[in-house]
Amino acid sequence: TRSGETRMAQGRRLRERVAGQTAMSDVVHSPSVNRERGTLARIAGVSPLDSTSRRAYRIALGELVVGDILDGLGQRWDVLHDLSLGGDSTLEQLVMGPSGIFAVRTANHGDAEVVVDGDIVLAGGEPHDDIEVCVRQAVAAAQALTTAAGETVLVQPLLVVVAPRRLTVRREPSGVLISESSGLERMLTRAPSQLGGEQVARISDLADLETTWPEASEVTLDTQRLNRQFTLVRAEVRSALAIRTAWVVGALLVACSGLWMMIARFVTQMVAV
To answer: pTM for the complete prediction?
Structure first.
């Protein structure tokens, strides 16, 4: 019946969620982004991001990179993005395929050197809780899927470091896989097979249900609009960066020109003596 079809559609809206959805929403709805920048700020290349929205922006960019990689794994794999785990915790990516079930957390620390030393992640020398959060989210995802399936479902925590300057693993973290974004596809597709096609399909079917996840009914459906809004913010951020860069380059050129004129004047005086 039509009412039954409606309930089914409402129960399976999770697949409409996109990579980085929560982080993108945080960016486009942040006060700093929605505050009108004055003419002087635009001329100076002031970014529309403040410290809070800048962090969400960096997270969103990382999740978009990883999401594109995961969405290209092929037909034997299934990926769900931005799943609620209750409270303010969101699982960025749930990946299901022949190699197993993976709870993916993205670590985007920019062009920093990242060191993994057991359960500690250092980015540019600063500690981060990426391992701890990755494990906690994998446990929560496993509990949700196990309850839905009526049997134990194992979920492997996987931390993906996005385009670091260099990634060094001094000591492997307990029970957590580590991968650079550039090697993620290879890690997943070349890992030993753990699940058959029917097992993957069954878990995927359960994961796709809103009732499997806490607070999953709060789903942002207009992802196309969200993507457009985030794209506009991204363009503004890039434009502001280009303007600031131009100012710096211009200042350096002026400084170099002044220095060259001083040197030329000095040489002329020395020759004249």
So the answer is: 0.84
